[in-house]
Amino acid sequence: MRLYNIYDSETLRKRLEASGQERVTISFYRYFNIAEPPVFRDKFYALMDSIGVLGRIYLATEGINAQISVPKEHITDLRHLLESIPELKDLRLNVAIEDNGKSFLKLKVKARPKIVADGLTDFRFDGTGGGVHLNAEDWNRLLDDPDAVVVDMRNHYESEVGRFDNASLPDVDTTRDLLPHVAENFAHAKDKKLLMYCTGGIRCEKASAYMRSQGYGEVYQLNGGIIEYARQVREDGIKSRFHGKNFVFDDRLGERVTDEVLAYCHQCGAPCDTHTNCRNKACNLLFIQCDACAAAHKGCCCDTCSHVASLSQSEQRELRKGGASKGPRYAKGRVPEKLSLANLRP
Question: Is residue 105 within 8 Å of residue 13, measured between CB atoms?
Fold first, then answer.
């Protein structure tokens, strides 16, 4: 049996659209010991492929981290397959709250050193011994505690489009930079209640254990992250203290939680929270672009990239060889200096 994909993205996209399947986007994770990740990887790929799962799954000796799309008719089968692995009993599945069925085009299962690039060189922290897990109602209550410090455990381009009331927003580009930044800049919170949240909960599992090891006494984390919080808000009629959109790491690039738009187009400054990747594949910059700028710049981040994207595939390949296929770059997801947030925000 072939345990990898051999088709290009365009072919896979057409196949997905032609299938007419109703699909559900799900994420899950668990920290547990995997003695031989490459062996586990091959077996797990076969299990997922047998029911048509698409998505991205990372395995390491410390556990599993998965973001997948599964045909709706096979959700029960998915649960049975996961339950067949003793370490995955009673696994919580985070179901997307806004789903177009096109979150993933192929199945990728990879063995890696870690299931999240957390920036830690100390391997003692394995996602256990962390903070107190809070449901949506208890989380909302603690947000108003004057003795609480709320920290967004995500990258800047995630918090730019959505965040909780009173949250501190670390200005970091990658997850590996996050924990060192928080440990260095929030030492004043050691005697307070430290509240941490992220997309689906996995980053906070290890982060909360690490922060406790650094002398933080009361550490709390949002159980299931923003995804589970949004589900509880909708199903239980709880007031949402999260505003805007929840950034997600698949082709959707976001799930709307509330109608509020907190961000701005990185090209013209109009209110907008739609992330996209530059259509020039050699650039692929993640940035925020409104509909008007998408039309004017043909889905690209600058005029240079618009020109490159309009060329034939063979011409683009030649340009990439010479390294002349990218426009003037600005950091991932950041507003260019000419459109600084200070100038955009009222």
Answer: yes
What element of type H or E holds 29? strand 23-31
For residue 147, the enclosing domain spans 132-236
Q: Examine residue 76 and state whether it is found in any structural domain, yes or no.
A: yes
Report which of residues 316 and 115 the model is more confident about.
115
Q: Helices in 100-252 by DSSP H: which ranges?
A: 136-143, 156-159, 175-185, 202-213, 225-236
Residue 100 sits in the same domain as residue 145: no
Show which residues are catalytic: 198
336 within domain boundaries: yes
| Region 247-261 average pLDDT | 95
Q: How many residues comprise the chain?
A: 346
Which pair of structure tokens corresponds to residue 172? 């970091």
* Same-domain check for residues 150 and 105: no
b (16+ CB within 10 A) / e for 117-133: ebbbeeeebbbeebbeb
To which H or E segment does residue 303 belong? Answer: helix 303-310
Residue 292 or 331, more confident = 292
Average pLDDT in the 184-206 region?
Answer: 90
Q: How many CA atoms lie within 13 A of 323 on its CB side?
A: 0
Q: How far apart are CA 61 and CA 70, in angstroms?
A: 25
- C-alpha distances in Å from residue 90, one per residue of 84, 129, 220: 11, 19, 22
